[in-house]
């Protein structure tokens, strides 16, 4: 048990990790360039044939890294697009990825906060109320097997009809997706105290609330953080999914989709990587909080 | 009241000494036990703190039942200091856990302070020292000790003061800010003793509290505990493996047989309340110790 | 001003220029209307939105609208700005397809989500099963772009004259490498973008009046777009919140759209309507539209 | 016994009321107009049913079979009651079918379109979900082990692993269709990406869960890395790994279905859902949703059963009634 | 070889008896120690199994350093049975852990079987019994005992046979199929002893192995351990709190002072190898026990 408290989980990128990260990234970049050649070659050969031009292998490779609609854009193409849409575009512009990222992030965070809260509340209920455990848990599980994309439009329509538009419907969908890992992790965590530790509370005739705050909660924290890291990534996915039926107006999801309508692979990839960076940053943030909290709890180094 | 005792236990363990029922100082005879029981309703002194009759407990496990306790009769009066001694695995911990309402008996009767164990637990009738320290790893030693006080709602200043006092009693001053894993095994055990003492319960249930301590600290804590018991008139139920410790501390020593745990002997030990460690050299002390050892040995012989 | 919410069938693009122009140029305002335009998307079924109260008026294709009627959403066409159909099937020449008779054994990309009715009717008319095999065609549910054709995952894909076709061209494929089958030319054209409202609401004269003004202003918007295609495309771009549309593509689209809206007064031509219904009824197992609903709104 | 009898009495009463209510909504507004009278009685019936359920949930039997039966009955009755409420509300309040069809219509669809549903199920669940789940979980697990084994990778790869695995499915799905074609492998690829991250995170956390003393024991045996992995760290990680397996069992299904929105052959649960929404056949859509929910819950249940078997020693399964 | 000893330890603890360095039977004097060291290179018998020189260990904690061991010198020859005794928290466990390579010394030298502790550990030079049982909850008792055998690659039949033999030795026959949480504290401790014995290491490091056992079982296991030691010529390093146990079992008793742990006395105990429990009544036994007790007491006085 004591060790579970110290479970480090995933760590963020810290200074000490810079070298390994750089080396691995470099390896991946090389792989990526190679994959771009491999995947785009057919189209490039077609294009050369269409122009009736002679070509060498060098031309082919250069061509695969410079297509307008490649199957897999080369890293520098994506980087250039990201630079253009993140740095070179005013953040108020609709072409700015910062603007779209913020739209998505705001509903992600709102949904994540609500989902975490809901997840914890449900877990607490399930652990403490037998009737809830038996009647609710199977239905919570069933709820997660409902394809969200199928009911997202209905959610949007229904919420829209009661006057909720914009941020909230998207956050609701994030909440719906991200509360689940929290429930599952917390139910496990809240039940993780060992029997002797529970017995001790019994000898004090501690109330349910006291046992909860003084024993169950601290024991559940490592489980909670493992869940939160998963949940925040899922919450972002939820926000992006929710951006489709809201009319795909703004947000990284809308960008992705719009890119997809027009086969703009470079745009898709830059939105995708921005989303992934955002997710990684959020996960890293959770790790930081986790480390701080577990250290305050006397975690063994 | 005045229930008839079942004869089983006595008949099955025809050893010298009372067959379990403890009620009068001196060799507890069955008849005397009954007599007291009957007077008790009239004049409730000395009050029975723990009253056990025909208690049995069976654990169901993956490969068959384990008979942990069988037909145990025991009565502990207020102010008693009772030690359980018996071979490893004989059911001492289980019996203590039944008293503490941490385990439910399979059959038989038990009352604590005249109430069911559950009610007694809900009234916070006792402090319990587990066989393992069971400290919470995320709390410092001080905050582990003040845990019961927090639960019982004492003010912060009072909590701090009590933690100071009892950590001092168990020689752990200076370790308030450490976490459990930074302490040695014996220190952890002492912290858990301080935790049980600090809310000053009238009934103390202690499961081998001094097992991991050296003789000197042990002697010291024996004296402290005896002093506390003497001053406050607490009732103590104590599990130990040390015969001298049992004889030195107790007013009664309950010797148990191997699984299924039964009481095979109850030995009185009448040293004056203010006794010192030196009594351990007296012939009377040695005589009692010898009798306890004999009982234990017989229990072991019983097994093979 | 009277509030009106319009639900588009697809994302913001020149396909809907008339409405954006009307809004941008103050035509709605002048008609005493406060119009909100909600873009659509791959997940949005306008009939569902209107049934749920999320819009007052929607843009839909007639086959889908008629099917919805049968499912209990009593849609009524109040205007038909698109006179002609822009649907086609675009194939690569190298697949050897020259006429619809060459389809069997090929893989065709089709849009679903209520947009498959014309295709199914066509195939029913040709007597080609859509269940695959050498005698039938293998149908793919096509995504939102033209990749299946570019990457040769499909032999033909659905395109609109104003959008996907040009995407193929923009991707570097030469027109002479392609062969296109217009639904109109094949005699299976169905009516596309029309304005629909709930029948029940038409009982309210105030609503009818609002809608009359709305249609009139919208048609004026379309008129303006025909006159100023480049500026109209610019207006559309300004309204695109995703910032993903490109100017060149939208100008092309605007020009193509203008060909489809040309000659429309907004009124639904009963002949066009009959043709659509007939096409759909011929679709064998597909949505049987037994009875023609009272169709043209008394809008003018 | 007494509690059981009380529970049954409550539930029977609620059942009788429910039948009357269903009958009255279906015979139309003329018999029992959907007035406050109906809603009030439905409310009262719900309170009674909840009472019955709470009583049943508290039921304790020494007979394990009876206990199991009671444990199953509680969620089942709870669910049935929700379905009843759904039916009464949709029919009673005349909710348009294109928004929310009534359970009756959905059940009818389940039977009349069983063949289509079965084909979709095979395509989506038996192929995309199972293959993707197996590969994704295995991948996450193996990468976690790899990262654990090679600290350099742990520090270099994990942050990037986070990055890759946090890719939103919506964006990945069209790309996967581009790479792996229209058929189920592209959906399986999406599922792989979705399930990878939870497994990675949980395995890494789980591998750190063994206590210091437990590890030191193996140090005294000079156990090799793999030996300590197999005999200590993996067993100790089991609760975490099962956490991921459970979360993934539902994520996989969502992932596969969502991925089918971006191009499929004309079969599959996601294909059917997106097509039939467009056709306003909401009863078919819900039939697919029901199928997905049943399949997903059964999948989850299997994983949970395996968990109980393999991690019986975890305190969460040794809880005494507190 | 032949390193000069640092004079510090001896100077700082001017107690009777040898100041830590143990090399010859009899009062280990510094010079004698050196003499042996020098001969050792020439004639390597009796081999030094553990050789510690000037070893110190400091723990860094959230509130400052804890000095756990300070300048410890100790030499344990093959076939020795050495007991550590000392007040709770004095560093006995820490010292044992340093020998086992579970803790790194802050300064000083240590070798085990002539190797660094790490190399020795990698050669599986020792068996370790922890102060807490540390059984794996997902393994039955039998499979907990066979764990080291699995790791060392013994065939299944042999594993089963050894588990049977050593579970029998610690009186746990019949509990093979139970899980750890179904055993009493003492039974768990015995299972962990069986686990350490079953791969028959030449060096046994035991941290209060019998702390949770009753006197009878303890006596029994004392005899078993002594028999094993006698027969197999094992080297045993043993932490205990029981003075009689230390005197009964050991060839040498190392008395430690409170934090920072130092060796304040080393007492030889020359009972014949085949000694029986009855020697505990002999005057010589009592004399040695007295000396140990005096050492312990002095250590405590040192602290306050
Ligand atoms: N990991 C640690 N971090 C910080 N301090 C520690 C740590 N482990 C032990 N200590 C400290 O080192 C000292 C010696 O501890 P050790 O466990 O060796 O004592 P011990 O002699 O075995 O005591 P006991 O008889 O009670 O088991 C103690 O004061 C303890 O607080
Ligand atoms: N939870 C349980 N499940 C099954 N059997 C159990 C359980 N707890 C204890 N036992 C069994 O009950 C018997 C008595 O155990 P108990 O812990 O009371 O012994 P004890 O007298 O305290 O022993 P020790 O002195 O070793 O602590 C033992 O044989 C043990 O195996
Ligand atoms: C999911 C989905 N797929 C295809 C269409 C078809 N569609 C109708 S209008 C239009 C725009 C043409 O550029 C397209 C593609 C749709 N509406 N929804
Ligand atoms: Mg015990
Ligand atoms: Mg120790």
TrEMBL record, chain A:
* Any one GO BP annotation for this protein: transmembrane transport
The answer on whether this UniProt entry bears the keyword Membrane reads yes
Membrane disposition = Multi-pass membrane protein
- Pfam families per the record? BPD_transp_1
Main subcellular location:
membrane
Listed GO cellular component terms? plasma membrane
Is Nucleotide-binding tagged as a keyword? no
The record's keywords, sorted A to Z, are:
Cell membrane, Membrane, Transmembrane, Transmembrane helix, Transport
Its annotated compartments are: Cell membrane
Limits of the ABC transmembrane type-1 domain: 97-290
Q: Which CDD domains match?
A: TM_PBP2
Give the matching SUPFAM superfamilies.
MetI-like (SSF161098)
Q: Give the transmembrane ranges.
A: 18-39, 109-129, 136-161, 167-187, 220-242, 266-289
Q: To which protein family does this belong?
A: Belongs to the binding-protein-dependent transport system permease family.
The entry's protein name is ABC transporter permease
Q: Which organism is it from?
A: Oleomonas cavernae
UniProtKB/TrEMBL annotation, chains B, E:
Q: Where is the ABC transporter domain?
A: 50-283
The source's superkingdom equals Bacteria
Q: Which InterPro entries match?
A: AAA+_ATPase, ABC_transporter-like_ATP-bd, ABC_transporter-like_CS, ABC_transporter_ATP-bind, P-loop_NTPase
Query: Where is the region Disordered?
Result: 1-26
| CDD domains referenced in this protein's UniProt entry, alphabetically | ABC_NrtD_SsuB_transporters (cd03293)
Q: Per its record, what are the GO molecular function terms?
A: ATP binding; ATP hydrolysis activity
Q: Which UniProt keywords apply?
A: ATP-binding, Nucleotide-binding, Transport
Name of a matching Pfam family: ABC_tran
Gene3D superfamilies named among the record's database cross-references: P-loop containing nucleotide triphosphate hydrolases
Please name the PANTHER family in this protein's record: ALIPHATIC SULFONATES IMPORT ATP-BINDING PROTEIN SSUB, TAURINE IMPORT ATP-BINDING PROTEIN-RELATED
- Family designation: Belongs to the ABC transporter superfamily.
Q: Per its record, how is this protein called by name?
A: ABC transporter ATP-binding protein
Q: Origin organism of this chain?
A: Oleomonas cavernae
Automatic annotation (TrEMBL), chain D:
Q: Known SUPFAM superfamilies for this protein?
A: MetI-like
Look up and give the membrane topology term: Multi-pass membrane protein
CDD domains associated with the record: TM_PBP2
Q: Mind listing the UniProt keywords for this protein, alphabetically?
A: Cell membrane, Membrane, Transmembrane, Transmembrane helix, Transport
- Give the UniProt subcellular location, in the record's own words: Cell membrane
Q: Cite a single GO BP annotation.
A: transmembrane transport
Domain (ABC transmembrane type-1): residue spans on this chain: 140-310
The keyword Cell membrane is annotated on this UniProt entry: yes
PANTHER family registered for this protein in UniProt: ABC TRANSPORTER PERMEASE PROTEIN HI_0355-RELATED (PTHR30151:SF20), ALKANE SULFONATE ABC TRANSPORTER-RELATED, MEMBRANE SUBUNIT (PTHR30151)
Task: State the protein's name.
Answer: ABC transporter permease
Which lineage is the organism of this entry classified under, starting from the top rank?
Bacteria, Pseudomonadati, Pseudomonadota, Alphaproteobacteria, Acetobacterales
